[in-house]
Amino acid sequence: xxxxxxxxxxxxxxxxxxxxxxxxxxxxEALRGVSFxxxxxxYVALMGRSGSGKSTLMHLLGCLDTPTNGRYWLNxxxxxxxxxxxxxxxxxxxxxxxxxxxxxxxxxxxxxxVMLPLQYRRHLHDAQPSEKELAAMALRQVGLGDRIGHKPxxxxxxxxxxxxxARALVTNPALILADEPTGNLxxxxxxxILDLLAALHENGRTIILVTHDxxxxxxxxxxxxxxxxxxxxxxxx
Amino acid sequence: xxLLKTIRTALIGIGxxxxxxxxxxxxxxxGVASVISMLALGNGARxxxxxxxxxxxxxxxxISVKEKIDQGEFVPVGEILSYEDGLRMPKEVALVNRVIMAxxxxxxxxxxxxxxxxxxxxxxxxxxxxxxxxxxVQPIGWPDxxxxxxxxxxxxxRFFTPAEVFSNADVCVLGYKTAEQLFGGDNPLxxxxxxxxxxxxxxxxxTELEVTNPALRNQAQPxxxFYLPISTAIANLFDQEPSVQITARVSDESQMAEARQxxxxxxxxxxxxxxxxxxxxxxxxxLTTRQDILGAQQQAARTFSFLLAAMAAVSLVVxxxxxxxxxxxxxxxxxxxxxxxxxxxARPQDIVAQFLLEAVLISGFGGTLGIAVGVLSIPLVAxxxxxxxxxxxxxxxxxFGVALLTGLAFGLYPAIRAARLDPIEALRYE
Lengths: 237, 430
Hints:
The structure holds two protein chains of two kinds.
Chain A: E1 12-23, E2 26-38, E3 43-47, H1 54-61, E4 69-74, E5 77-78, H2 84-94, E6 95-98, H3 110-119, H4 131-141, H5 157-169, E7 175-179, H6 187-202, E8 207-211, H7 214-217, E9 222-227, E10 230-236
Parallel strand pairs in A: 3-8, 3-9, 6-7, 7-8
Antiparallel strand pairs in A: 1-2, 1-4, 4-5, 9-10
Helix pairs in contact in A: 3-4, 3-5, 4-5, 5-6
Chain B: H1 3-15, H2 18-24, H3 26-52, E1 60-65, E2 67-70, E3 73-76, H4 83-92, E4 96-111, E5 114-123, H5 127-134, E6 137-139, E7 154-157, H6 162-166, E8 171-174, H7 176-183, E9 192-195, E10 198-206, E11 209-211, E12 226-229, H8 230-237, E13 245-250, H9 256-271, E14 285-288, H10 290-333, H11 335-343, H12 348-382, H13 395-419, H14 423-428
Parallel strand pairs in B: 5-12, 8-10
Antiparallel strand pairs in B: 1-13, 1-14, 2-3, 4-5, 4-9, 4-13, 6-11, 7-10, 8-12, 9-10
Helix pairs in contact in B: 1-12, 3-10, 3-12, 3-13, 10-12, 10-13, 12-13
């Protein structure tokens, strides 16, 4: 994939992406032919109510699932039809996830949680800093350089989400996918997290923010509104 | 992931519920421990059999009386195997050039006020040489590998002569401890000892002996011995004429089958043995050669191996199901963790490796514990087998390997189930 990567290619290009589920005898069209392009360094919000197809789209963009139809190029490489194993490798190298419920492993320290993606990294280069150094750097980036040895249970919600963001950053991915990152936080802490994402964007990160909240979405440069499995409106800020 | 990291991850997984992991291993612990202790029993029994028959050279036929249990006692099925049977054998059986005879019985031995109720042995003049040839005992401090003869066992005086055995002489030889118990520190040589109601001249005292064969260490008491000429013992210790143990030495080793036939013919004639309804000789004696013992031993070893394999299989299945159960629970409990790992890039084989290793670590822990329990229980199980149990060193890697394989086999299904989880579903799991 990376061998064929075009330096000028957009981070995301999707074309006619659709996803159909069969639930019992009923066929659900969760996504009906979505097409768009996200340039490197963009900050895009994916907005819509529940059932609009935004979660399905996020799963496809995150390579957690494969589309029924259509193509998806991530960093210029077609990732639409990859096997489970190859999708895992793509997630590991190119995508950083931030979840609503943080999803930290409670028995691991903050540092170990951030190191987790590195443990599954392949093609290591000797010249790179060690996993510990990389994780510590990522924690400093989110302002938690002094919480390295703490367990997630010893941290506040905002701090936990910062750890999760550090975990998403540590592999230096092409894309950060944040799924309702402020959903479990009070508005003040939520605002801090959004500020952090904005700062990462300033530093050139490509971010996709999935939310149902218009105020949250307003932080992005570009908002894609979804309804009934399609993009119905696009606002550029 | 590197192996080291996978091991660390698996250890953290086990650490989340140590008690459960320990309980899970119980089946494996019991299985491994019983394999080790059973193999020790078998090993000890084999060593004991070997020790007991070491004196049976390849040129020898052991003759014993056939007995049955009647009202709780052993009684001969036909005639006894008499001293006379043995005495005449070298003359009347062409291929037998010599016989060794022995007998033992309870007797009351007295000197002054010291009385011992003990087992008295009657032997031929070569009794001590036969004891030396068995190689199960030696004088204390005897150098390793130094050839041993009966003469080395005598500290003071001498053993019987063939003439004394033939003439029913009232002479005796005392074991080291027996001499101490009867005479204190005094010199017993030339003194008179009463055996039941008969006087007996002490002509020899044995040196202090030690048992060298570990299989016999708890049974044999070589220093609590009292020897009489076999003819004297028969006359003095028994109300009725007893059966004796006879070992015949064959002059030509290449004709063992023929010698066996000659001995059988000789005894059938003397004991007036007939044939039963299906035309088989209804013998009242049994003949045993080294070949017979080896065959029986191999048969016993086969039976024992089969039993052991069955036991190992049962413990393997029980222990394995325990591990599978706990791993399935663990996979369910940690669905969300698996989802997170998959999301950050764990490949299916990484998840398989993590859970498989966890199962193998648990079973390996159980195997280690089982080996410790098994080795420590050997003295205990030995009590059920007359103190005979010897650790079989091969059983340690064998049973540990079986334990690891169990973890691998029964951990595979839960591990594959974990790896097949859909990351989206797993991340939503509450």
